[in-house]
Amino acid sequence: MPVPGLILLAGVLAVPLAALWALRWAASHGELGHGDRAALLPFDEEEPVGTATDQILNRPAKP
Amino acid sequence: MNYGPLLFLGILFTLASSWFGLVLMPNRQLGALVANTSTNDAGAVVVYPQARSGQAQQGAELYRSLGCIYCHSQQVRPEGFGADIARGWGKRRSVSRDYIYEPTVMLGTSRTGPDLTNIGERQSSAEWHLTHLYDPRITSKGSIMPPHPFLFEKRRIGAGGASTNALKLSGAFAVAAGFEVVPRPEARQLVEYLRSLKTSFDLPEAHLPKKESGDDANAKAAK
Amino acid sequence: MSAPAKPLSALMPGDVSDEHAKRALLAEIDASCRVPLLFFFVSALAWLLVGTALALVSSIKLHDPAFLAECPWLTFGRVRPAHLNAVIYGWASQTGIGVTLWLMCRLCRVPFVAPGLATVAALFWNLGLSVGIVGILAGDSTSIEWLELPRYATPILFFSYALIAVWGVITFRLRRERHLYVSQWYLLAALLWFPWLYATAQILLVLEPARGVVQGAVNWWFAHNVLGLWFTPIGLGAIYYFIPKVIGRPIHSYYLSVLGFWSLALFYNWNGLHHLIGGPLPAWMITVSIVASVMMLIPVITVAINHHFTMRGHFGKLKHSPTLRFVVFGAVCYTLTSLQGVANSLRGYSEIVHFTHHTVAHAHLGVYGFFTMVMFGAMYYILPRITGREWPSLGLVSLHFWACAIGLALYVGPLSIGGILQGLAMNDATKPFADVVAGTLPYLKLRTVAGLLLGLGHVAFVANLVWMLCRVFGPYRQPVVDLITGNESPAAVGK
């Protein structure tokens, strides 16, 4: 097999292996955890979950 | 994904993969293509493709500047895929080698107008091209191509009589009596470029159809 | 789930633990964004109007070629790329950058750092683009699709972008919220991908052009990725923030969003060469792009499911929130345009629709239906908060939405069908080319009508914004918080 072919093959093998290693590293370092809490990040105590915002159209006239 | 490192690596790695595959690999595979040298039946050496001559190259710059690419492609799809060859836009499919000397490769993605890969052979008359550029509807009824009056000079006929270069205009397109329309140098350059667009050359990776390349067949038989 | 769940307050940075400070944080962040964001948004809208005018001129020229034909600056082949660059780099990129900066501030929980830096960046971006668009009209277009800006304009844009990147790094480093939300992955990815794409294309196509059809490969790797790795992540990042934020409910599945992000990152960047199906490139390059295009079904369906289930039970809020209307409209268009894109990438279908107006309709469904509509929605949310003034006319808001929604449907629907018919006719060699052209005329005329409707929507939006800005600079009229939140929830009472 010519040298460029070997380099290509090595690259094709190395890339998924590196990806798998990164995934394992991430899992063991807590990178994949806290998902459900991360989903709460757009909210805070000022505008907690359950607070709809931007409700300006088609409102009944203010008393 | 709570912290940055995995994210950053992933972002860089994903784009690197296609940069490798769709930028670097094409460059490796096609970046060193050279012209094809063959001998025609008369024994003369034919080198194809060749770099464009001065005036035609100036025309290519105008083609780029005027944005002809937005309506005209320059690629013939293979036989049986679309009707490119059946419409006579080319005698064979376009291949990578056809484009190696193009400073800007203008393959195009739109055929609001017809493909121009082989226009130099399909329509070789400079007069037709000039008239067509001045107002496409003179030569092609129903065309929606924009006229290019700015490539021409409308002037009063001088004492020496009408110019031999003046366009022959009649009917609805005629200019007022005593006036004539003559092409500016830009119009001539653009036409030279269009007339230089010819791809009817036999290549090892894309042969011309048999009846067109009968000479080649004879040469093979002789061997 | 290695760490035990903590209450949300534990996620808050220490220096805003004080109750009073917390309550003021959103307002403080919003106010800090005012000057740079207004600069980006107002100039983006100016480019939108310029781009719309150029679009109308190009559209009219296609069915009335004698229109404005005397002037070389206004010939179709220059007005069309000027339109594309005005809307892509003037409108879409600038509004996208504006929305990105705001979302980064909010999600990193830091007030806008170095507003002067971002304002200078906006200034140079507009300078570079103005030089470039005039250059295109004057005849210096490169005629490389999506990269038409002449070579003397791009260094100015690069300088501007470098400033924005520096800003992004500083904000990211200073963030007071360690955890990253979905939107931030998309935004960070977009900020990193775009300069890489643009620099590669600029070098290999304009500065040191690659040989032959390598240019075609690089061109479409770049052009498709401007859509896929620049606009799409910003648009999706905005959707992932605004839908939950407006309806007050977290995203349906955080894990689906992880899958959606990584599958998009893996597959989208390989898509570009499906623009060259049948073209003079080796089959493997085109095939690998077709495979990747089909794989796009994974991120697209994942995101669609996730957004749909987030919205479930809250569709009634579409009636009240302009932001939600535009953003949900955009999300639906994202699904539609992506599915259409998958179909377009298949060889059999591409044989028909490649080279036709179908592609133009598809591009508008993506850049307009999806991205532009999401950005409109985001601006409806952001502008009142950074200026401290409510939208003066709700009638104009409705006019904007309906003119754009109907205009887009009128644009994309008929032109898609017209494109298919055009392709079928073109593939029938017995049909004279003049007949093919004549067949497209009704659709091209309808497109001009659709463009007028879109233009009407843009004018309504700009009028509303100008009115709002007059209030900002004029006398104090009415407090904004009362109107904009309009919460049903008792949590917001008394704000």
Helix content of chain A: 40-55%
Average pLDDT of chain C, rounded to a whole number, is 90
Domain count of chain C: the total is: 2
Number of strands of chain C: 0
Cα(first) to Cα(last) distance of chain C is 36 Å
What is the level-2 CATH architecture name of the largest domain in chain C?
Up-down Bundle
Shape designation of chain A: elongated
Chains forming the largest contact: B-C, 78 and 86 residues
Largest sheet geometry of chain C: none
Secondary-structure element series of chain A:
HH
Coarse structural class of chain A: mainly alpha
CA-based shape of chain C? globular
Class from secondary-structure proportions of chain C? mainly alpha
Return Rg of chain A in Å.
25 Å
The tally of beta strands of chain A, per DSSP, is 0
CATH superfamily caption of the largest domain in chain C: Cytochrome c oxidase-like, subunit I domain
Short description:
By secondary structure, chain A is mostly helical. Chain A has helices at 3-28, 35-38. Chain B is mainly alpha-helical and 223 residues long.
Commentary on this structure:
The complex is a heterotrimer of chains A (63), B (223) and C (495). In chain A, 48% of the residues lie in helices and 0% in strands. Chain A is an all-alpha fold and 63 residues long. Chain A is elongated and about 75 Å long. Chain B has 223 residues and is mainly alpha-helical. Chain B contains seven helices and four strands, in the order αββααααββαα. In chain B, helix 2 packs across helix 6 (185-196) and helix 4 (126-134) packs across helix 6. Mean pLDDT of chain B is 90; it is low at 217-223. Chain C folds into two domains: 23-179, Four Helix Bundle (Hemerythrin (Met), subunit A) (Up-down Bundle), CATH 1.20.120; 192-486, Up-down Bundle (Cytochrome C Oxidase, Chain A), CATH 1.20.210. In chain C, helix 3 runs parallel beside helix 5. Chains in contact: A-B, A-C, B-C. The interface between A and C is large, with 29 and 57 residues.
